[in-house]
Amino acid sequence: MTARTPADQPPPALAPRDVGVVKRIGNGVVTGAADDDPSAIGTYASAGAAYGLSFLPIAPVLLPMMYVVTYLSAKIGQVYGKGLFACIREQFPRWVLVPTVVFATVGNLIEAAADLGGMGAALNLLVPLPVPAIVVASAAIVFAVQYWGSYAAIHRLFRWLALFLFAYVVAAVLARPDPLAVLRATVIPDVSWSPEFLALVVACIGTSLSAYVYTWQSNQEVEEQIAAGRRHPRQRRGATAREMKRTSRDVLIGMLFSNVILYFIILSTALTLHPAGQREIASAADAASALEPLAGAAAKYLFAAGVVGVGFLAVPIMTTGAAYNITQALGRDGSLHQAPNENRLFYAVIAATTALAAGANFLGFNPMRMLVWAGVVQGLLVPPLLLMMMLLTNSRRVVGARTNGWRTNTLGWITVAVTAACAVALVVSWLR
Predict the structure, then answer these.
(1) Whether the Cβ atoms of residue 118 and residue 371 lie closer than 8 Å to each other
(2) Domains in the chain, ordered, with CATH?
(3) Per-residue DSSP letter, 160
């Protein structure tokens, strides 16, 4: 008889996680909103303003990719019992680990810097202070809550602000689009092969499938199991079919919400800014103007609330993700359940990443342009990381009997191919 691997062993029962339908959907919505961070808002708004309705097909194309990437990351944390980079360290040679963790951490840093800049630009619409000063204050608040409080506290405080993202849905509806024209534009792609168009495609892919999502999702599965009493990795190995089904469902809810929001951000700017000839979003005020059909003079308040709300959700995820990456690559543990005096390295990385992200905003980059380029950088990181995740989740040594089924494999490998092709096309267009 073939010996069973640790990942095949049924784990100790977790505390019940099946909660009411309304609360479960609410948690999924918040997770999806965190994916629509300020970088995502800036990127989608720029795409709609620049190319109008012709950019709408990106939403249905991205949805299955968003789902499969997040699900694979969750599976690694749930079944292997460790975060993504701990798994990469144990399953791949050092020459693969080192550049991967360096580029992923740099990607997190750039994205956090862009998000802090976007938050500063949005708040500057309301507060007559220099954007860099607002950035520093925002970074200090984020780190203070992480260090002296908990991420759960900031999550509870700002989670409902993410619902301001629905303003883009209402704005698009109130702009009275032609339903047939919108449907035709959504299902019939109108692709341009210009470097600018390809850069926005890669940016949309990158900001939807950001590396910080992989790291965070896998480690949150681990954190949840630690909270349930599974403190040793051996206790966390394996997952029941019911647990995997629940994970798949929750990921789908979150990514569906995130995808609907990105669709309507593109649609609202395509219906308002693009026809007016405002093809480039150079400031937060430009992006806020897309909400004017809904809110008039109050548009800037809605825009600022949405950006700042999801920013305070997303920036801690990115800085903590960098800490997960580095500590796991060094073979060290890192958990939000540990106090700062219990793991100085973990919190030192959070502090350093937050400080560097804030400092990057003093280099003179336009905050809205930086949001788009952060997505481009993340988009170039997607193919290699996703390739490793596909190999890991098809390895019985890693996930035991929970290797991917044919549907997940088909969707995963298509996502690898599509993201790689877009990245290569962008690089070729630059070289030309």
Answers:
(1) yes
(2) 17-431 (1.20.1740.10)
(3) G
